[in-house]
Design a protein that fits this description.
By secondary structure, this protein is α+β, with helices and mostly antiparallel strands. It has 6 helices and 16 strands. It folds into 2 domains: 105 residues, no CATH class; 209 residues. 17% of the residues lie in helices and 46% in strands. An 8-stranded antiparallel beta barrel has the order 3-4-5-9-12-14-15-16. Strands 1-2 form a two-stranded parallel sheet. A two-stranded antiparallel sheet has the order 6-7. The two termini are 49 Å apart.
Length: 324
């Protein structure tokens, strides 16, 4: 019968010794079920312990204690226990103790690092006038936004991927579509809408503001990685993801787009570029929730769209973000 080697390294000063092995086993559902299952061999039980180490539910030190406990309860299987004194003579400098006792190579232990992924987002947008979302003068379906850029996620721990910080750089295009054949017009230092003297196609004009944006958020995910011993590679497992944070941006372009028919029936497309009294800086709050690379994202500008309008009009957006 193949011998299964367990190493009890008391000299390591394991912090897990402060907690009884029995309570560690009882508090772990998978290990508790395996230890009480008479149909499992000792090797199979140790495999369960290995899996819990990889999942991050127990530490390596706790695993050593659990394996020793399981070995003592398996008299039908040959087990060699190497003391801390003989460890240095027989194994020191040749084998890694965790590698030998747990049958896990150190380069197969899952580690998490900063991940970079491009993304694109799109959806509807509009303004809340004096914090009121209803009865906007702009079309709810024709007003929309598009955003694309790079997203980076850095976990707080190299061995635990659940919590981290997400940040990046993006370009965002916020659009507002008028109603009632109106177009945007300047009235002194204010930007208003007025009935157009043109026959606007579909009865609306479109103002698009372009921003360079830096989003940042506290991020939680259930996605993780596991090592597939059969294929000798890491496998990424999809999970649920949510976060809350904010963003800051700078306006780099503002254009009004007009489409109309002239007196001769010709179709005209006109772009009017200017600052339109749009705030140079943009900042706001955001939240998102989704599964893996698909998220529903909501954003709300704390800064008004126009700098000097009597009524504050704060842009909001709701859409789908797709990561690659």
């Amino acid at each position: 019968m193949k011998k299964i080697l367990c190493i009890a390294l008391i000299a390591f000063g394991m912090t897990a010794q402060a907690q009884s092995v029995g309570s560690i086993i009882e508090n772990n559902e998978a290990i508790s079920a395996a230890s009480e299952n008479p149909g499992l061999t000792l090797k199979e039980k140790i495999t369960v312990v290995n899996n819990e180490v990889e999942a991050g539910t127990i530490t390596k030190e706790q695993a050593f204690l659990i394996i020793t406990e399981l070995s003592d309860k398996a008299p039908d299987e040959a087990v060699d226990v190497v003391s801390s004194e003989s460890y240095n003579e027989e194994w020191g400098g040749i084998h890694n103790p965790f590698e030998e006792a747990m049958e896990v190579k150190m380069d197969t232990v899952v580690k998490y690092r900063t991940e970079i992924s491009p993304f694109i987002a799109f959806g509807v947008g509009n303004v809340a006038t004096d914090k009121m979302f209803a009865n906007s003068e702009f079309g709810y379906m024709r007003s929309n936004y598009v955003e694309w850029g790079l997203s980076l996620r850095t976990p707080f721990s190299k061995t635990d991927n659940r919590w981290g910080v997400r940040y990046g750089l993006s370009f965002k295009y916020n659009g507002l579509a008028t109603t009632g054949n109106k177009e945007f017009a300047l009235n002194g230092n204010q930007t208003l809408t007025a009935v157009s003297d043109k026959n606007l196609r579909k009865g609306y004009a479109y103002l698009r503001n372009t921003y360079i944006s830096i989003p940042f958020s506290l991020d939680f995910t259930t996605a993780n990685k596991t090592y597939n011993a059969a294929n000798r590679k890491f496998v990424k497992n999809a999970g649920y993801n949510f976060g809350i944070g904010g963003y800051i941006g700078y306006n780099i372009n503002s254009k009004q787009h007009l489409r109309y028919n002239d007196e001769n029936g010709y179709k005209i497309y006109e772009q009017q570029k200017g600052d339109w009294n749009v705030n140079d800086f943009q900042y706001g709050l955001m939240a998102y929730i989704g599964q893996d690379k698909f998220k529903i994202v909501a954003k709300y500008d704390l800064s008004p769209v126009f700098s000097d309008n009597t009524a504050d009009q704060n842009y909001w957006s709701l859409g789908l973000q797709i990561g690659f």
